[in-house]
Each structure stands twice: as structure tokens, then as C-alpha cells.
Q: What sequence folds into this?
């Protein structure tokens, strides 16, 4: 059999690539290894409406709640600082199974053929090899996620190093709709999301998301920091720090996935007829935790630029979110170092603590690190500007 | 809650053929002495354990996160996906 385009992986990136490719009139095959789209995928997950609506008609988007309030927490052993923001963008929480199924259905409606329970095991020339046989394709789009076995086997990228990868662990707890709203002080479909940056017991980033009938919580633990403490013990510690939040409710699901913190442009996004998108080239913004947005953008851009490798890479760099990710690589690498991570979390907490108690003497300690801070600030300005 | 209890919340369909294997047990012994076997430390599903000097891989429990092969200092893990959509299937994700 012959297709114009074969897309590997019906995650958010692959489904949008297939959707757009089919819309453009290409005969498109979308291959997913899981029993259904989304069944192998993990996210918190919070998405920004504008990230999706630029590329997909969002009518019927299966969201859980509309996030009306984001709580940002900086926490050390000694104390913690909480900030609350009303987001300007429209944010939703989604569950990946529903969200990915919805996106894959859109691709099917546009004319793409979806085949599930099938793993692509190789790409040789214009042949795409699967467990159930081979197909021919002019173009292959690899939207295979962070564990990108194919992209690696094709030499388009290497394996991530421990210091370039975070392990995300997640738990979902059942709760009635009323109970969710009561515990978070919410009404109707309004939702809340938490981001927690903590150095205790080891540096990690935590999250809490409200769904319709459940609450999800989780942590991202840098793989280079795993010493002595297992990542799920960090999750345990985070959950117990939330005390009453999920008390009395039962665990519905436990899951985990690697989050890439390096990639494009040092990983190749395109090679003649093979295009790579999303997590497979590390398009996650570690500063805002946005991975779905850039995954969708890159899936769309790959299908827009079939036959024009350089055009795709250029389009990626011109995409605002992707370009910010690329510019922030150096800074993120610096901030993920354990000593820097600890330093800044403590600085923020000490600053607020000192300010509230009227005693800023603790901050003297930070004076000796002025140069490092200045360097990070300069890197940070490069990310903004 | 123990990891085994957490894994009960997942739907698994077992592939009879293991999708994870270690290439060389001798390297694992060396790794255990030198690095304390990072695969054991990192795995969220307790797939790896030492039993009588051998690294045992309970691949049936794997949640397919991809972390173990990144932390293995000897690139000693053969990591494939379970075949035909077998392995885990999430309800939320
Ligand atoms: C715990 C956690 C929380 C997160 N929270 C957020 C959040 O709140 N907001 C956000 O925007 N991002 C979040 N992210 C990041 C986000 O999940 C990813 O950036 C996003 O899923 C990337 O999409 P993708 O399409 O590139 O890859 P994926 O969603 O991973 O999809 C890849 C697909 O390819 C399939 N596949 C892989 N190999 C093959 C093969 N050989 N053959 C066939 N099929 C294959 C897989 O089964 C999968 O369906 C989070 C991640 C984690 C782990
Ligand atoms: S990390 Fe690699 S070498 Fe070390 S014990 Fe595990 S599989 Fe063996
Ligand atoms: S992929 Fe993840 S769950 Fe599976 S064995 Fe490796 S570390 Fe454990």
C-alpha cells in the first residue's frame, strides 16, 4: 500500500499533523501503538485555548474545567510563598485520553486513516515498517513523543542524558464534582491549577489540577537528582504536604513519563522525507510547563512544509513558543543544576519572609552570589527579548 | 500506598514476549558496585531488582515511562515497545 504521508503516533502532535496533512489533500495514514489514541500518554494536563485554536477548530473540545485561578508556590523546608494569579489566557484542564481521542477523530474526519495497536519499528527509504507489515510513503512524520525510539534509530537525535530529562509522575484521585468544588472553593466548571517549585526533599516541580470528578497531582523530578530517594518517594512527600486535599478519596490512576529538557535545534527536526515533531525533538517549555501547545504547533508546521525541510526548521524557529524554548535552553540547564535550583527557591522564600518580618539580614548571604545571578539574569533577558 | 497497589489501578495487557531486557548481567554487577544501579532507583514501577546477584526485569509492570534506559550508565537495556498495543492502557493520562 502507498500513502503520501505516514504519521507515527496519535498524540496531540501527530493527530494535528495528520489532520492538516489530510486537509491539504495528502493521502494520510496515522499509526498509533496504543489500543486507542491517548491510552499511552501522560500530561497534567493544562492547555491554553489559543495554542489549540490557531490550528484546530475547538468546537466540542472535551475539557474538564476552565482554569480561573493559578496558584504558584515556592517552598523550602523552612517556609513557603504562595502567589495567586487570574490567568489572562483561557486555560483548560483536560484528560489526555479524551483530548487525544477527540484530536484523532478530527484527523479521521478530515480523511486520515487511523490504525491503532500497531507499532512502527523502522523507516527505510520510502518504506515504513510496522509489526503488521510495511507501507510506502513519500513523507514520514515522527510524532512519537519523548521516548523517540525511531528518531534515535534514524540518527536524527541521540538519547537524552539524565541531566536533560525530568521524570513526571502523576496520580488521579476520584472525588465527586461537589467535593472537588468544595475543597478548592470553586463553582460550576471553574477550575484551579497549582504549580509548586520546591527543594524539599530534593529539587522538584509539583502540580495539582482540578478535573470534573477528580483531582490530579504529580511531580517532575530531574533524573540527574535521583540519588537515594526514588521519584515516587518525592511524589509521596509532595502528596503528604498537601494534607487534606485528597484525603478520603481513592486513587484512580498512577502514571509516569519522561519529559525532555533538551532537543531542537541540536536534534534534527527534518531529514529529506522524515519530519520530527513535539516531544520527540524536545519541544517542552520547562519554564511554563507547556508541551502540548508546541507539540501541536510543530505537528501543524511539519505538515505545512512537506518537501521543504529547511522551510519546516525555519517555521519552527519563527514560532514564538518554540523559539522561546530554544532560547531558554542554556538558562534552563543552569537553573536545573541542583545548587542553582535550591539557591533561587530559597532566595524567593527568604525574600518574602524577610520582607514580612522586617528583617532582611538573611539576604546578605545572597550578595556573594551576585555575579552568578547577574549571569542568569542576562540569560533570562535573552529568553524574553 | 505501595507501588504494587498503585499499579493495580492500571489496565495491563501482557505481552508474552518481554519488551525490556538487559544485555549483560556482568555489567549490572559492576554497575551495582560503582553506581548503585540507577535503573532500580528511578523506576516508578519497581520493574528492576537484584535477586541473587542477577538483575531481574519484571517487564509486566512497566508503565513505559522511558526513564531506565536514560539513567543506565552502560547503555545495557534493550528497550522496545510492547507489541500490538499491549502493555499499559491509561484512562486519564
Ligand atoms: C506528568 C506530566 C505532566 C505534564 N503536564 C503538561 C501540562 O499540563 N501541559 C502541557 O502542555 N504539557 C504537559 N506535559 C507535557 C506533554 O505531555 C507533552 O509535551 C506532549 O504530550 C507531547 O506531545 P507529543 O504528541 O509530542 O507526544 P505524545 O503525547 O507522547 O504522543 C506520542 C504518541 O506516539 C505514539 N508512539 C510512539 N512511538 C510509536 C511507534 N513507534 N509506533 C506507533 N506509535 C508510537 C505513542 O503511543 C503516543 O500516542 C506533561 C508531561 C508529563 C509527563
Ligand atoms: S542501570 Fe543498567 S547496567 Fe546498571 S543495573 Fe541497571 S540495567 Fe544494569
Ligand atoms: S520504562 Fe519506566 S516503568 Fe518501564 S522499566 Fe523503565 S523506568 Fe520502569
A:
Amino acid at each position: 500500500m502507498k500513502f503520501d504521508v505516514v504519521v507515527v503516533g496519535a498524540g496531540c502532535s501527530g493527530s494535528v499533523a495528520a489532520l492538516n496533512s489530510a486537509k491539504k489533500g495528502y493521502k494520510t495514514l496515522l499509526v498509533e501503538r496504543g489500543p486507542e489514541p491517548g491510552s499511552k500518554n501522560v500530561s497534567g494536563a493544562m492547555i491554553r485555548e489559543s495554542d489549540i485554536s490557531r490550528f484546530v477548530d475547538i468546537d466540542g473540545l472535551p475539557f474538564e474545567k476552565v482554569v480561573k485561578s493559578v496558584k504558584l508556590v515556592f517552598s523550602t523546608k523552612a517556609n513557603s510563598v504562595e502567589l495567586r494569579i487570574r490567568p489572562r489566557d483561557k486555560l483548560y484542564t483536560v484528560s489526555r485520553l479524551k483530548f487525544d481521542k477527540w484530536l484523532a477523530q478530527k484527523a479521521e474526519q478530515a480523511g486520515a486513516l487511523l490504525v491503532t495497536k500497531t507499532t512502527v519499528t523502522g523507516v527505510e527509504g520510502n518504506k515504513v515498517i510496522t509489526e503488521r507489515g510495511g507501507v510506502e510513503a513519500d513523507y514520514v512524520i515522527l510524532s512519537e513523543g519523548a521516548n523517540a525510539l525511531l528518531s534515535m534509530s534514524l540518527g536524527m537525535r541521540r538519547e537524552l542524558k539524565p541531566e536533560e530529562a525530568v521524570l513526571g509522575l502523576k496520580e488521579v484521585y476520584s472525588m465527586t464534582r461537589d467535593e472537588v468544588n468544595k475543597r478548592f472553593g470553586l463553582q460550576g466548571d471553574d477550575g484551579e491549577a497549582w504549580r509548586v517549585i520546591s527543594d524539599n526533599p530534593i529539587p522538584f516541580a509539583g502540580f495539582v489540577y482540578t478535573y470534573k470528578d477528580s483531582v490530579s497531582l504529580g511531580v517532575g523530578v530531574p533524573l540527574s537528582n535521583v540519588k537515594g530517594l526514588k521519584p515516587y518517594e518525592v511524589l509521596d512527600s509532595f502528596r503528604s504536604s498537601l494534607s487534606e486535599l485528597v484525603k478520603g478519596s481513592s486513587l484512580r490512576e498512577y502514571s509516569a513519563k519522561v519529559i525532555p529538557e533538551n532537543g531542537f535545534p541540536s536534534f534534527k527536526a527534518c531529514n529529506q522525507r522524515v519530519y520530527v515533531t513535539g516531544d520527540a525533538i524536545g519541544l517542552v517549555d520547562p519554564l511554563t510547563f507547556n508541551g502540548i501547545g508546541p507539540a501541536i504547533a510543530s505537528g501543524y508546521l511539519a505538515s505545512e512544509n512537506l518537501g521543504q525541510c529547511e522551510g519546516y526548521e525555519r517555521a519552527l524557529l519563527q514560532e514564538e513558543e518554540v523559539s522561546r524554548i530554544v532560547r531558554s535552553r542554556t538558562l534552563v540547564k543552569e537553573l536545573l543544576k541542583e545548587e542553582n535550583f535550591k539557591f533561587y527557591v530559597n532566595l524567593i522564600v527568604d525574600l518574602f519572609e524577610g520582607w514580612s518580618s522586617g528583617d532582611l539580614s538573611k539576604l546578605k548571604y545572597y550578595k556573594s552570589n551576585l555575579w552568578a545571578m547577574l549571569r542568569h539574569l542576562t540569560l533570562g533577558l535573552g529568553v524574553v527579548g | 500506598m505501595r507501588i504494587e497497589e498503585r499499579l493495580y489501578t492500571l489496565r495491563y495487557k501482557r505481552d508474552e514476549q518481554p519488551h525490556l531486557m538487559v544485555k549483560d548481567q556482568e555489567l549490572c554487577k559492576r554497575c551495582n558496585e560503582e553506581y548503585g544501579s540507577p535503573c532500580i532507583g528511578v523506576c516508578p514501577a519497581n520493574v528492576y531488582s537484584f535477586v541473587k546477584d542477577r538483575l531481574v526485569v519484571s517487564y509486566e509492570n512497566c508503565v513505559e515511562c522511558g526513564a531506565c534506559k536514560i539513567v543506565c550508565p552502560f547503555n545495557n537495556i534493550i528497550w522496545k515497545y510492547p507489541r500490538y498495543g499491549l502493555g499499559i492502557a491509561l484512562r486519564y493520562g
Q: What stands out?
A: The mean pLDDT of chain A is 94. The CA atoms of residues 95 and 236 of chain A lie 22 Å apart. The first helix of chain A runs from residue 12 to 23. Chain A touches chain B through 50 residues (CB under 8 Å).
